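This section describes the prediction task in plain terms. A model, or a person checking by hand, is given the sequence of a single protein chain and must write out its three-dimensional structure as a string of tokens. No templates, partner chains or ligands are provided. The sample shown here is typical of the held-out split.
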Amino acid sequence: MDFTLDPQVDALRLKVRRFIADEIVPLESDRANYNEYENIRMALRDEMRAKARAEGIYAPQMPKERGGLGLPMVGQAAFYEEANRSIFGPCCLNCSAPDDGNMRLLSMAAREDQKDKWLQPIIDGEVNSSFVMTEPHPGGGSDPGMMLTRAERKGNMWVVHGRKWFISGADTAGHFILMARTDDNPEEKRRHLTAFLFHRDQPGWRILRRIENMGPDEHGGICELEFDGLEIHDSDRLMEVGDGLKVTQIRLGPARLTHCMRWLGLAKRCMEIAAAYTATREGFGIRLADRESVQLKMGELAHDIQIGRLLVMNAAWKLDQGDYARKEVSMAKVHVADTLHKAADVAIQLNGARGYSKDTILEWIYRYARCARIVDGASEVHNMVLARFYAKEAQDFWRWGV
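The expected answer:
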């Protein structure tokens, strides 16, 4: 692939960089701008979204006819990296999880009438959304074949029973995408799931708890849900009966990669904070930045971030070519998750007590970074995927595209 950005994409990237630096980063230093879960207050987020829309840097992944920018995955990689220079950036530009992946899924898989009803309000910022898949043991997690939540058809309605947990964004979501088992055959692994759409106000389900965690939390947190007779009309089914596994593939592959795009922005921000501090802080007659031990840490970190960027761009390019890019996305996910955690750790170490305190955003990023190796498939699962590809392809694992 050619790593040269389209001039229009590069101009947009620079526009995002300026907006984040001028409008969003300054918000981080005032605790009044945070909610109780250490994210930006929703009202302030909406103010920033209006500014971003006016600047033409809003909803980069959505089609232009629906109010987005219509960027391909390669363009999104450049955009998202700049957006997440600030911890508040992606949600203010409407390209943060889980809405980002949900919007992309609905844009690709929903009927036009479903897009009008379920997608457009998310694009417009009228509602938040949530993807409801993961279950407590012995239900489905990384293995959707274990899913226990059931949807039973009764005429034109589907009746849902089951439990879900660690559901991102559920506490503030208005629109939900639900994965449920619709095939009675326990041996069926390919056509056993179906996806449904439901609204927060529909009866027959409830949030049992917002699960406390290391945080900081995205809007809506991570929640445990119970379904006890939720009725969903068949017109609110997404794709065909038994297409649920296809839905998860459409939803989760690109979403893993957009996580990596954003994480690279945060990793670069960590390095930026470390560089600024070590350039001025002196100890024992020498600047920290002039110490070889510090230079080794910074050089290694810069190296790891660039590897992550190349992995992400390669995967993004393949997705733009119509490839599933499963292998490439898994490689990016493992490496970038590790790199984000390493970047936060190194930056805290180089800032000393200042980094451990809340005087910088490093401790925020450090706590956030720990979940990167778990969300959207633990690193071990992705390494297992890569091992299976190698077992099947052998030397062709590293083949060149011709």
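For orientation: The domain at 251-398 is CATH 1.20.140.10 (Butyryl-CoA Dehydrogenase, subunit A; domain 3).
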